[in-house]
Amino acid sequence: MQDYIFEIQLKVRDYELDLQGVVNNAVYQSYLEHARHEYLLSTGFSFAELTQQGIILMVSRIEMDFKNPLVSRDEFVVKIRTERQGVKMIFFQDIYRLEDNVLCLKAKVDAIAKVNNKLSRGEIFDTILQ
Amino acid sequence: MQDYIFEIQLKVRDYELDLQGVVNNAVYQSYLEHARHEYLLSTGFSFAELTQQGIILMVSRIEMDFKNPLVSRDEFVVKIRTERQGVKMIFFQDIYRLEDNVLCLKAKVDAIAKVNNKLSRGEIFDTILQ
Amino acid sequence: MQDYIFEIQLKVRDYELDLQGVVNNAVYQSYLEHARHEYLLSTGFSFAELTQQGIILMVSRIEMDFKNPLVSRDEFVVKIRTERQGVKMIFFQDIYRLEDNVLCLKAKVDAIAKVNNKLSRGEIFDTILQ
Amino acid sequence: MQDYIFEIQLKVRDYELDLQGVVNNAVYQSYLEHARHEYLLSTGFSFAELTQQGIILMVSRIEMDFKNPLVSRDEFVVKIRTERQGVKMIFFQDIYRLEDNVLCLKAKVDAIAKVNNKLSRGEIFDTILQ
Questions:
Q1: Considering only alpha carbons, which residue of chain A is nearest residue C20?
Q2: pLDDT at B73 over 60
Q3: Coil, helix or strand for B14?
């Protein structure tokens, strides 16, 4: 198994909590997106600029296992490893609570790219991975 | 395959769109949650009241296939069918654009229940399904 | 005082609640935006299409008085009246709980328009108001 | 005028952008809330714990002037100064873009506290300010 190639530390914000007092499930998906976009930036690519150039990066499928809920004041890290599969770039993204390194979320995110409205064969992903 | 047992019609709100001009991926998860809670209400149970009673309904896993993006002004329907599996209640949730009945999202959501902080064997789900 | 010229009925979604069990303050701002965009549509204009045409409608100032919190299951109505003031269009937006007509939020929203990146004198608003 | 007494640095996340490619107006309100809660923590108080103890801090009124939009990749700082006024604690909160120190948002937030469901005279705020 490939090692993690990128990570970002974040902190729970209270407006992300729901009436159960835990981070709402949908918010994790936002955390994952933000981590991927920061990873992109670290490779020299901006999601916003790619979009303006007509290179549309899209999530085609996502799987998330919710292991342990994050709560108010928790700090956490989103770790990423990647795999190229055909037209796809697969992001394996895991969220750990910083305090005790407990796994909170395990996710697999399939991304595809459209260029000028056509599904690309994933050349953009090869470029990013170099 | 069981038929859909519940559906709810909603409309895209512009604040749900991201810089690509489509509904942001994480927002679909919110749509799905809202549909499940409305389904619960239709069976006589309130998510908020269950939470207050110490019955914590949680999503343990989610799978989503993003088929076609929703955009500004789109109206759509979230359809639900359910299955009991061990301690879990499985929600199969599909989102269709109303205008042309195109499938936009296909999801499988595994829910579990904790009662007084212990994993329940899912009796609450049997009660709901009756 | 001018009468309300538009209203839209909505229902609280549980993911909009925060750890206090009430609709999070920021969510009201989203309700208000959605109501304004639906009002726009009712006059024949789409916020998304205007944006694509380079007509950027923006909020320059907002005032909100939080009177009574909305909670799970609440249905409510957002009512709008408008005034033209110089380059601005002022939206007075009030939110009432449907069940008992209690005032939940009172807001004043100042909107301006930029056309091709220049502040417009508000002609677009005059067109809308006709 | 009192000096700023607290500040927090944050970075725009792409999911906070709307179809105009700028941070959605409602998101600024979330930024402000997060900054206030972090300020609270810096004085030794947790919003979540106060809520559990029946001390409900609430926003009664908010005024926001949107000066310059934040966009993808922007880093910014939320600065806070406070004033006690009767039962209220007033937060003056300004957001500056870090790169060039441009003022992006100017806000005034009135907070009140309810203790056991009764409006407090603001003793909790005096305690925080000590």
A1: A19
A2: yes
A3: helix
| b/e C48-72 (16+ beta carbons within 10 angstroms → b) | bebbeeebbbebebbebbbbebbbb
Is the pLDDT score of A34 beyond 70? yes
Residue A123 CB contacts under 8 Å (≥ 6 apart), including other chains:
none
> How many angstroms away from the CA of C12 is the closest CA of chain B?
9
The answer to whether the CB of C107 falls within 8 A of the CB of C65 is yes
- Within 13 Å, how many C-alpha atoms sit on residue A38's CB side? 23
> How many residues comprise chain A?
130
* The Cα angle at residue D38 between residues D36 and D39, in degrees rounded to 5: 60
pLDDT tens for residues A7-23?
999 999 999 999 999 99
Residues in chain D: 130
pLDDT digits (tens, 9 = 90+) for A65-119: 999 999 999 999 999 999 999 999 999 999 999 999 999 999 999 999 999 889 9
Q: Are residues B79 and B96 in contact, defined by beta-carbon separation less than 8 angstroms?
A: yes
Query: Does the model's ipTM exceed the 0.85 cut?
Result: yes
- Domains of chain C from N-terminus onward: 6-129 (3.10.129.10)
Under DSSP, is residue D105 helix (H, G, I), strand (E, B) or coil? Answer: strand
Tell me the C-alpha distance between C116 and C54, whole Å. 6
- Angle of helix C25-42 relative to helix D25-42, nearest 10 degrees, comes to 170
Chain C residue numbers touching A18 (CB-CB < 8 A): 14-15, 17-19
Interchain CB distance below 8 Å, A15 and C21: no
D95: exposed, middle or buried (C-beta count within 10 Å: 0-12, 13-18, 19+)?
buried
Contact C105, D61 (CB under 8 A): no
Residue B109 has pLDDT above 80, yes or no: yes
On whether any CB of chain A is under 8 Å from the CB of C71, the answer is no
Helices B25-42 and A25-42 sit at what angle, rounded to 10 degrees? 170
Angle at the Cα of C62 from the Cα atoms of C57 and C67, rounded to 5 degrees: 135
Question: Contacts of residue B73 in chain C, CB cutoff 8 Å?
Answer: 41, 46, 48
Q: How far apart are CA A111 and CA D102, in angstroms?
A: 36
Residue D130's pLDDT is: 80
Beta bridge partners of D110: D61, D90
D18 as an active site residue: the answer is yes
Mean pLDDT of D80-108: 97
State whether residue B54 sits within 8 Å of chain D by CB. no
Considering only CB atoms, B17 lies closest to which of D18, D26, D72, namely D18
Instruction: Confirm or reject contact between B29 and chain A (CB < 8 A).
Output: yes
